[in-house]
Amino acid sequence: MGSLQLDDFVAGWVGGAAAVIVGHPLDTVKTRLQAGQGYGNTFKCVLTVYRNEAVAGFFKGMSFPLVSIAIYNSVVFGVFSNTQRLISQQRYGNSHHPPSLADLALASMAAGAVSVGIGGPVDLVKIRLQMQTQTFIAAANLNLKHRAAGFSVETAYRGPVHCVGMILRQEGLGGLYRGSSAMILRDIPGYCLYFIPYTLLCGWITPEGCLSPSPFSVWMAGGIAGAISWGTATPMDVVKSRLQADGVYWNKYRGVIDCISQSYHSEGLKVFFRGLTVNAVRGFPMSAAMFLGYELSLKALREQAEANP
User: Fold this and answer.
1) What is its main location (predicted)?
2) Which terminus has fewer CB within 10 Å in the chain: N or C?
3) Could you say which DSSP state residue 251 is in?
4) What class has domain 2-302?
5) What share of the chain is helix, strand, coil (3-state, %, to 5)?
6) Which residues 6+ apart lie within 8 Å of 239 measured at CB?
7) Residue ranges per structural domain of the chain
8) Which pTM was predicted?
């Protein structure tokens, strides 16, 4: 059982890396839409990013999550799988006993809670790097320092390491966890609506008598689960993105409640559904790639372990 526990973490890294590569361009669009920088709708945001920054603009900030996903996604999948097995062992005396809905919910909540500790700083740096390219005219509207004409572009951070260093110097260790309260409120229910639909859909799509789901079943179930999870998580994801983007050039929000209040009063209820389409659309291929990478690598690792006991 010990090797299987490690396999979950390794497979989680593979799945996470696949998800970052597939989903990062749309994640950049989603972040900029939610942070409220005047991009308008999704199509206008895509065009603006492309015109101003070319294709590279969609991959801004990808290096850090791609590297750090080795830890973050490993933790999420490792904690979920091992917690699920522990619950089954305690409740049924067999770690491989099929989990109940309550078992899946508990394991999902554990994964969501633990992931914030690692995922908070990763998400913060990613969003800061995605959001740092803004014209000074936007800063000027907020009575901040700016250059003449307002057409030059400010680069606050030179890269992930510089970004972390700047945050630590300016805001201290707590600065790396800006928006973590909103992230907890997003991720605990979000992971329940991620792992539970995936498990149920996999069981439903897989033909009777098959020992494991086919790659197509994994891809389809993972994609649908991702669309459901990210779609329903959008309101709190908006709050989290705004809190984490806050601080690149100014400090606008005092916390979750203040962010919700200011956002609602300035833009109405619709602001909390900004990026919903991008989230749902992005959630399908990203999660499909994640679960497929996870399941296929997990299968390969276990077959290798059996061949070389």
Assistant:
1) mitochondrion
2) C
3) -
4) mainly alpha
5) 80, 0, 20
6) 179, 182, 256, 259, 260, 263, 272
7) 2-302
8) 0.76
